[in-house]
């Protein structure tokens, strides 16, 4: 039984964990739990499941994180992905909406609020991913943005928690594209919560160190098999697979990349000495050329 489970885990882990977390999220809401709590419980369960799978069936032994990796990435997760996002959502967004309303500027109801929550969430993913796709491509082409984005590409290994490694300035720019427009449009908390559950768990999977085979889903989802190539140290490989949650925009605009006969080699930046600590990385985008320096 154990051998059979290990053989099937790479094929079923992604759809099973995603599906179970959505069912858990909906069940907790149905049982009367507060929406925020039901959302975070589902996401936390997804993360724990993925961490367990990383131990059970790792993709590469050299990608197993060390204690310092955990400390740095956990710090990014708390400071950037949780506290900064909460600040932007509850302070910046509310202030902006108050300014709009006090000046008599209102947005007509253009969002299909009468659609089912799941359908609205799918529409949100499609639109948000389209905006993030072009922001992501620009972040690889335009040096000022790349110097911020290089922080995310700096690790030499991929595992679930380094999905949160983003410079706070870049995270703020991303917020303008993938959250703020929908908050201004007045999308319900239930839709935002459903989006958040998928966004978070898919992100953990996207960066995971798990043997995962998504098969046909690689033509729909921006998952780990595709995203590993995006973190390649070779620029002709990393300038592909820009999708945040979905990969359909890469297919449409010619940046889908998944070689079948070879595996990705080194990850990270050209400069193998690029700093990996939190404080150093907060300063590194402002050191001109640091991301492009060759090893001494």
Structure explained in plain terms:
- The protein has 296 residues and is mainly alpha-helical.
- It has one domain.
- The chain has twelve helices and no strands.
- The longest helix has 36 residues.
- The protein is globular, with a radius of gyration of 19 Å.
Question: What's the helix and strand layout?
Answer:
Elements: H1 2-30, H2 35-56, H3 67-102, H4 117-141, H5 143-153, H6 168-178, H7 180-184, H8 189-206, H9 224-230, H10 235-238, H11 248-253, H12 278-283
Strand content: under 5%
Low-confidence stretches: none
Shape verdict: globular
Instruction: Specify the biggest β-sheet.
Output: none
Domain count: 1
The number of helical runs is 12
Estimate the mean pLDDT confidence: 90
Distance between the termini: 51 Å
SS-derived structural category: mainly alpha
- Helix-strand topology string: HHHHHHHHHHHH
Radius of gyration (CA) equals 19 Å
What percentage of residues falls in helices of 4 or more residues? 55-70%
Q: How many individual β-strands?
A: 0
